[in-house]
Amino acid sequence: MPVLLITILLLLVPSIGFTAESLKSTIDDQSSVALTVYNSNMGLVKDVRKLSLPKGEGELRFMDVASGIIPESVHVRSLNAPDKLSVLEQNYEYDLISREKLLDKYVGEKVKLLNFNEYQGKQETVEATLVSNNNGQIYEIGNEIYLGYPGYGVLPKLPENLIAKPTLTWLFKNEFPDGQDVEVSYLTNGVTWRADYVLAIDKDDKLGDLSGWVTLDNQSGTTYKDAGLKLVAGKVNVIEHAPMGRAMRFNAELSVAKSADAAQFAEQAFFEYHLYDLNRKTTVKDKEKKQVSLLEATGVPLTKEFRVFGQTWWFAQHNNGQKQKQPVEVMMTFKNSEADHLGMPLPLGIVRLYKEDNSGGLQFIGEDNIEHTPKDEDVKLKVGEAFDVVAERNQTAFQQMGRVYESTWEVTIRNHKKEDIVVNVVEPLSGFSDWEVTTSSFPYKKLNASTLEFEVPVAKDAEAVLTYTVRANY
Question: What distance in Å separates the CA atoms of residue 75 and residue 77, rounded to the nearest whole number?
Fold first, then answer.
């Protein structure tokens, strides 16, 4: 079915739904804007505009706000006359103009349909009644019903109560007739940020260069031009509100380029979170992802580990002597400390690891998430699974004595690399009230009440066999 195109007069928009006495404020009145972005798809906007309001009560249309605005969060204050301006009522108008809404307003009304007749070489105009706009248009023309109609639709005028942009409408009381700097702050959905990191490690896997980027994603429905930008890292508690009706009325008295200066954000502790303040203005466009450099650190000491992880349920059943191959995980660890050329609280994000190949080109070797990491804490990254290190597990003995389970294990590790390594075999015993290792071929550490760990040295092109017996009591 042909698409119905709508021809309207946009010049009618300013007069819709407002009295002739309504004042209007647009982005042109803005003197400054500040944006604080949270990890939870939410931002705090502080929009300062220069306004000249008449004395007494009046109505102001405050336009060019974010379409994701949370109206209940709006706070209005005059910066130079705080006790002279108050907002008595506020409406949030967001019934925006669209093709479907225009047609919905004209169901049951007369419209014109324009169609160019190719055979006659002229435009034909047909008068019709729009019967329905549900899953397509249905027209009554003469005494017949048409399921759609080719050409253009023309409406006689713009319906009431439709607006072009989300707008706050205030009933205000003002006792300061001179110009004022009015700050309007509000929360908005649709804007968030995350941290992305790149860790390039050296040929010996001993040192790394870490760079961090902030990625902003603005889907809030407006652009923040030359904004002061702050980021809050941490989990802020936000209550899910039940959806409200369309009418809202309440009192409101109240693309990537690396920077030459890597330390663009000043970090500070803020309540139980951390605040990152960009030391320059930036423009955050609507429907844009923007990246800003967060940190640069070179020569960060790294530790590489090989790990094999067991399963709790293995220790309470007989596996019929079946050998099981296990993946050998590769972990990289560094300390977020000043001594290791870091020490700034690291926001949660993804760390992507790279390493130079023999030709000097960087190759991607893995990635892992990190949580919000305070200074002086370790960052552990799972890079992947070792290709040249093989682990094989075999249960060589098992017996159950009431609620006591005793099993003997043999873990064979074969190292096909060109250097000696140490493999940590981590065995979880959660769920058991008591356990002990009665025999073992290598020393072990009790990491906590339900985990033990063996450090198994394996020479290059050789194998090592860990054998141990554990007795566990449910």
Answer: 7
Strand segments, DSSP code E, in 121-206 are: 122-132, 138-141, 144-146, 152-154, 167-174, 180-189, 191-201
Ramachandran class of 260: left when φ > 0, alpha when ψ lies in -120 to 50, beta otherwise:
alpha
How distant, in Å, are the alpha carbons of 266, 290, 356 from that of 258?
Answer: 17, 12, 20
Look at residue 1 in the predicted model and tell me its pLDDT.
36
CB 77 within 8 A of CB 201: no
Question: Among residues 127, 154, 181, which one ends one of the domains?
Answer: 154
Q: Is residue 23 part of a domain?
A: no
CA distance 438 to 382: 32
Using the predicted structure, report yes or no on whether residue 404 has a pLDDT greater than 60: yes
* Gyration radius of the chain over CA positions: 33
Residues 38-60: b if buried by 16+ CB within 10 A, e if exposed: bbebbbbbbbbbebebeeeeebb
* Cα-based torsion angle of the residue sequence 156, 162, 167, 168 in order, rounded to the nearest 10 degrees: 120
Per-residue pLDDT reduced to its tens digit, 217-231: 999 999 999 999 999
Q: Is the pLDDT of residue 98 over 90?
A: no
Residue 420 lies in a domain: yes
- If pLDDT is split at 50, 70 and 90, which confidence band does 269 have? low
Place of tokens 């700097």: 181
Report the distance separating Cα 265 and Cα 204, nearest Å: 32
Residue 110 belongs to domain spanning? 99-154
Residue 262 has a pLDDT of 47
- Provide the number of structural domains found in the chain: 2
Residue 294 lies in a domain: no
What's the rounded mean pLDDT across residues 274-294? 89
> In b/e form, how buried is each residue of 292-317, taking b as 16+ CB within 10 angstroms?
bbbbebeebebeebbbbebeeebbbe
Instruction: Look at 428 and 104; give whichever has higher pLDDT.
Output: 428
Residue 115 lies in a domain: yes
Considering 108, 125, 154, which residue would you say is the last residue of a domain? 154
Q: Name the more confident of 265 and 294.
A: 294
